[in-house]
């Protein structure tokens, strides 16, 4: 790696999106003394699915979790810099973390439905946020969310069966339905297909296509083919740096940075 | 746009390794396999032996207890013929209707008259054949049917301790053995179910003792223990696991709790004596104080079990709930606690079982007194089952031997019932994954 390719981020770098939903500026994340994220600035908008790629341990999941403050649950984690949602600083004192996480939903690597019925899984979020006025309302929300997640036809006759009895792919779509049910603005997906078989993966990818435009979607993935398939913008992380951020088609065909090229051609990773 | 740079994943078999094929049939291999099987068989045998051994000991314990204790639930009864018209008790039928019946019969000299009847029936020594409390059986008979006062009837009254022992084949007292044999020959000696053992309390005469006082004392004490130890233990576990920062102070607290769980129980008795009795001036021998002392003792057990159960809840469930905007307390009460409850209940069962069998700390706070009436509430003097067993096992009179065994049976049944309830609750809350 020579000096040429290692160019530090500018103060306000050029972003490939024009109407940002979320903006991160100069974000640093520390685990104790270790600096896991180094001066990352990135914009996310509603029209494009953004994929975070990079080798294991490069900080892409860590950065994703700063976007809805899930890192707050780790006592030694500390975030510096500014992250805004619609211009509001999400780390400010006025921002309620509970509301933030409802607005910026998250889907995890391993499907993690609650050990409750399918209906209860989806209804839990609206219920704790008081989004449904009546039982009929709640049922409508559950139905709409499951339909959006493409799961309704498969589970409509067994809404009261346990959510954990579903297959892995169905569980993951249930988790997406659960996130959708609280009507978020942004959905963060942390390697949502890494525990799924190719058919279930294809279904999730199709779902991501359908959700694009309704929500700002950020997806972390290890699978570069997947990044190429589902995203319009790609960000490449390496050793805590955001090395390159641009159109997915550009990144995969004509990367500006030597490191990006090395990674996507399989030179390391 | 040019071609994607992403290479296709490699496919097809790798070059085979150039190594000689392993011969799995050589003598060395065969020997290793045989040794492995032998090892496995040996291990299985040891395991089976351990299980059979402990089951055997348990069966031996239960059979001996039942064998010796079953007699405690029975009593030798003597059919005592009483000629009421001849005794001429000075009571009128309307005196027997109201609550004053006991007093009226006692002041009419029923106790002496029953002795007189026994002497009349069985000769000079007759008064020694029946229990000192025999007249109470007669009194009950009169109260349930006052019309017998005008008749000559035969009433089953408890035999004296000497006769009862002799009837069971204890040959230490030749006179009693002879008398018992004669009574048996006359067909007046029989065995009846001793209901007084289940509804009575401690007494000096082994034929008159009952377990209800101690049982009720144990019930009240356990109730207090559960009400104090369970909520405090569970909330401490939740706080330490979910909220407390991890620093030197919480480390210190964790070590202290682990040490407290191993502190000998009598130390907790001394603590209860010093704090609850001397400092707070709570009543001596009361289930309240006993329960509080035992609660102190089992709280560390519940905290440790609770923390382990909470730790065992998969973090993905917490993430899932936090990820859709549940607050910390919602995560704990909607998701973590229900999943941890079976484990917490297991810890509570262990703690409560230990508390139920505990004697030493209760001796320190005065629950070893002779208490002849069941406690009316948690402030009344009481004793508990293990202490009662301890007290009876210390008695000189041989009649207490089978009462002690019977009390042990009651204690074991109580323990099993308590555990059965806890296991039922645990299975109800258990979540299927």
Provide structural commentary.
- The complex is a heterodimer of chains A (269) and B (433).
- Chain A has helices at residues 60-66, 97-103, 118-128, 135-148, 152-155, 168-181, 198-211, 224-230, 248-253, 258-264, and strands spanning 20-31, 34-45, 49-53, 77-85, 88-89, 104-107, 186-190, 216-220, 233-238, 241-247.
- Chain A contains 10 helices and 10 strands.
- In chain A, a hairpin with a 2-residue loop joins strand 4 and strand 5.
- The longest helix of chain A has 14 residues, at 135-148.
- Chain A has a domain at 20-113 and 184-264: P-loop containing nucleotide triphosphate hydrolases (Rossmann fold).
- Chain A is α/β, with parallel strands linked by helices.
- In chain A, helix 3 runs parallel beside helix 6 and helix 4 (135-148) packs across helix 6 (168-181).
- In chain A, strands 6-7-8-3-9-10 form a 6-stranded mixed sheet, with helices on both faces. A 4-stranded antiparallel sheet of chain A has the order 2-1-4-5, with helices on one face.
- With 433 residues, chain B is mainly alpha-helical.
- Chain B folds into 2 domains: 74-193, no CATH class; 212-429, Orthogonal Bundle (MetI-like fold), CATH 1.10.3720.
- Chain B has helices spanning 27-69, 84-87, 101-107, 110-122, 134-144, 161-167, 174-186, 195-199, 212-243, 248-260, 265-279, 287-311, 315-323, 328-356, 360-364, 385-393, 400-429, and strands at 74-83, 152-158, 189-193.
- The model of chain B has no long low-confidence stretch (mean pLDDT 85).
Give Rg of chain B in angstroms. 33 Å
Major sheet of chain B: 3 strands, antiparallel
Let me know the number of strands of chain B: 3
Indicate how many domains the architecture of chain B comprises: 2
Outline of the structure:
Chain A has helices spanning 60-66, 97-103, 118-128, 135-148, 152-155, 168-181, 198-211, 224-230, 248-253, 258-264; strands at 20-31, 34-45, 49-53, 77-85, 88-89, 104-107, 186-190, 216-220, 233-238, 241-247.
